[in-house]
Structures are given as C-alpha cells and as structure tokens.
Design brief:
globular; alpha/beta
Amino acid sequence: MENHTDKIVSSAQDSKYKVFNSATEALQGVASGMTLLFGGFGLCGIPENCIEALSKTKLKDLTCVSNNAGVDGFGLGLLMERQQIKKMISSYVGENELFEKLFLSGQLEVEMNPQGTLAERIRAGGAGIPAFFTPTGVGTVVAEGKEVREIEGRKYVLEKWIRGDFAFVKAWKGDYFGNLIFRKSARNFNPLVATAGKITVAEVEQLVPLGELDPDEVHTPGVFVQRIFQGKNYQKRIENLTTRT
C-alpha cells in the first residue's frame, strides 16, 4: 500500500514536475570540484538531508558557500570530516574545531566575508548582477586586492557576485512546482541561496500538492527551484544551549 509520500511523488512525476524520492536522487549531476551553495544560519534551516547524502559520496575538492561551516559531526562538519571540502566561502566559522585545525594546517582554503557582504554577493548572483560597490571592509584586509572607488566623497570596495553549480536549501513547506515557505528564523540565507544556483535543490518538511500554498505566503517562487523532495529525520539541533540556573 502506498504511503502519503509515495502518492505525492507519483502524482508529481505524472504531472512532469520536479519531485524526487530522496536526497540521494536529487544529487544527480553533482561532481567533484563544483561550487555548492548552502542555506542556513548556524544549524538553523540547513539542508540536513542533502549534506548527509553528500557526505556518503566520494565527491571531493568542493568549494562550499555557507554563512557557517556547521559543527563537528553535523552540518558541513560532516563533509570536513571526510575531507571533501577544498575551500569555504563563509562569514562566521567559530563553532567548528575541525575547521580551525584544517585551516591552520593549510588543508582548507578559506575566503572570509562580512556577513552582509556575503548575503549581498549571493543575492547579486541570483539577480544577475556581476559586481557591486559597498563601503563595508574599506581600509581592512577585506579590501586587499580589490578595486576601491570613491563615490560622492565616500570610498567603496568592489565585490563580485557568487553563483553555484548547485544550491541546497531547506524549507518548511513546498509544493510540486518548488514554491517554498520558510519558517521563522529558518528563513535566513535560504531565499537568497535558492536563487543563485544553476540547479537548486530544496528539501522540505512538508511536501504538498499544487494549490495548497497561499501565494501571498510564498517566499521563494518555484521558478528558482529545479528539484524538491520531502526530507526526514530532522534533528533541529541547538548550536549553543543556554539555560537559566
């Protein structure tokens, strides 16, 4: 007897939409040496199923773009443990001890960005804007080797867009066409990342038929999403648990 997910997948494929059965299937075409974009902030809203599936492959020399680098044993930390990542383009990486060791030993290349600059570089990639000027980073190591221009009396540094071969995002709800709704803080980098991949893969907690989502509540239109599947076994871990005594 078919379960609910089987019915969703069958119906969607019959309609020639974008639904895949699993993360493993949705990774078709990902190759070593590619640039991969990941939504999420810390451990909130990360594409857990996609990262786990990637960690079980033999892919290597990956350039990964993500605000954070996960933690030891979870998130992108899984790919680091298996030495699959060659370069990280990030903003904040302070929670991953393995990251620190790989960087200091020269085994991991790192390109650090101010957080707003990283977000705007990804947004620019999705919008088709190859570069933009920002005052953030002028006069610091962030501006080294980059064009600095004075505009109306203020200096700005030129930053280039970021685009990926694949982009991976995690949403709360999605439909067969790939329309996505993110929930609360899990929205974070996901809508930006979803626009900046040549192929965007979305994993969702709830996969619903067309017409189930209120158009006014959709954060990412399905035109940006090429593949979608219903995820499972989400841990929703807390990066740093703080309680009162």
